[in-house]
Amino acid sequence: MPSNVNPTVRRRRLGQELRRLRELKGMTAEEVAERLLVSQSKISRLENGRRSISQRDVRDLCGVYEVEDVRIVDSLMQMAKDSRQQGWWHAFGDIPYSVYIGLETDAESLRVYEPQMVPGLLQTRAYAEALISGALPEAPPSDIEKRVNVRSRRQDRVNAPENPLRLWAVIDESALRRVVGDKQVMIDQLEHLVEQSHLPHVTVQVLPFEMGAHPGINGQYAILEFPDAADSSVVYIEGVTSDLYLEKANDVQRYSVMYEHLRAQALNVEQTREFISKIAKSYTS
Fold this sequence. Notes:
434 Repressor (Amino-terminal Domain); Endonuclease, Chain A; 2 domains; Helix-turn-helix domain-containing protein
C-alpha cells in the first residue's frame, strides 16, 4: 500500500461523498436502509467513516442514488478498495482506538487539553508504561507492551524531520503533580516535556490550579485538523468503552473557542517551562 494512502481518511472522504450523494437525491438514511434491506445504523456508520465499506456497498448505494457517471462510480469503488487496506497500526493487532490513530497519522495539527496526564505524544517510555499499567491493572504484560509500542510509534509524527505534526498542548497542573511510576520517572518525564517544548512545531502550556474553574473543567479533548480542505476538522473525546468523534462545524467551533480560552488562561511558554522545571526539582527532595 502506498505510504500516502491512509485507510481511515479514505473511509472519511468516501463517507462524506456518499452522504453528499444521498442528500442530493433528497433521501434520508432510513429510506436508503429500507431500499437496501439493511439497518439505518449501517448507513450512518458508512457515512461517518467508522465502518469499513466494501465495493459492493458502494455499487448498491450508487444504484439507489442513480449515479450514472461511470467515472464517479469507479472513483468511489477505488476509494472503497483503498479504505480496506491496513495502516501501520494494524501490525500491532487489535487496537481499541485505531480510528483515532488513523486520523492522527494524517492530521496536520493537533490541539489537545489534558487534565490528568501528560499527552501521549509527549510521554517518555517509562511514564507510558507506568501510566498504562495503572490504568489497566488487569491487562497482561504483552498488552501493556503493545500499547506502549504503539504510543512510541505515534510519536514519530512529532519527531519527524520533514512535515512533523504541529502540536499544541494545554496541560493541567494536576497532570504534573500526579506521581506516575516513581519520582525519577516523573523527573525524566518533566525534563522531556520541557525539551520537547523547544521544538519549533510544539507548544506546551500549563494551566495552574490558581486559575480555578475554566472551560476544560469537564475533561480531556483534542482537535485534529487536516491538510486537505476536503477533510473536516474532528473533535476527539476519549471514553472508557467508546470514544466520541464530533465533526459538525458548530461542534468543532464550540470546542475551538473553548480551547482559545484555555490557552489564554494558561501560563505562556516561558512561564510554563519554568513552572515544569520547578515541579521537577521538587521531586528530587
